[in-house]
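Blinded run. Sample ID left blank on purpose so nobody reads anything into the name before looking at the predicted structure. Input follows.
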Amino acid sequence: MSDSSNMKRLDKPDLFYGDRKETRVWLLRMELHFKYHEEDMDDSDKPAYAACYMRGDAFEWVKPYVEE
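Blinded prediction complete.
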């Protein structure tokens, strides 16, 4: 088993623009990212973190929740 400090960090998640055909894949990739970084991030941080990777229509949808 390799030491986690020697493991390559995951790339940042892809940006999501709201294409419904891409939603499921993007969400799965975010879940994998969260799982890999589970020691670095609380569940309460995940929505805001995911919102940072949303653009266009996707960000317009999430914006009211971010502004709360």
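Unblinding after everyone has recorded impressions. The mean pLDDT is 87.
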